[in-house]
Protein: 26S proteasome non-ATPase regulatory subunit 5
Amino acid sequence: ITTKTYQIMKDQIDNNRELRSKIKDDVFIKQQLSLLSPGIDNSEKRFLVHEFTRSAMLLPDFNEYQRLSPLINALVNEVDTNDLLGCSTALEMLADIASYKQENINYFESIGLLQKIYKLFQTTKEDTDMGITHTACIRFFGYLSTTDSNALEKFPIFTSDVFDAIYHFDSLDPLRRKLAFETFAVVTKTIGAKRFLSSENCICFY
Structure:
C-alpha cells in the first residue's frame, strides 16, 4: 500500500468518525434543523444541510433513520416542482443514497418516497417544461435498480420506457438518446436485473 493510498484511507476513516460523532450530537442536529428555512433565497444553506444528510446515509453502518428523520424529510420535501433546479438536485442526492444500500431503499419505501417519485416520473413525461425533472427521475430509478433489481418489476412504466427509448433511439434528440443508453447500461448491469429481463414477467418490449 502506498503512502498516498494510506493517507486517503486514513482521511476517509477520520471523516466517517467525525460524521458519526455529528449524528449523535443533539446540538449539531438542532443547528442543522435551524438552517432549513424554506424559499429559494435559503436554498444554498439548505443543500449544505442536505449534503450532511446524504453523507451520513452513505456511511456503511448507518441506521439512525429515526434520529435523522427530520433532516431526511427535509431533503425529501425538496422534491417539489415549484423549484425545478432544487427538485432535480434533491433527486440526484436521493438516487445516490438509494443506490448505496438496500436499507436506505427500504426506508424510502416506508415513507412513500418511491411512489412519490414514480408518480412524478409519470406526470413529467409529457411536460416539456419538466424535462430536467423527468431526466432526474429516470436517473433515480436507474440507480435504484442497481441495488434493488425488483425496482424494474415494481416500476414497470419506467422499465418499459427505458427499453422503448432504446428501441426507438433514432427518433430521439442527442441528449435524450445519450440518457437512454446510459440508463440502459445502468439498469442491465446487475445479475438480478439480467435475471428479471430474461424472465417471462418482463414486458419491456410489449
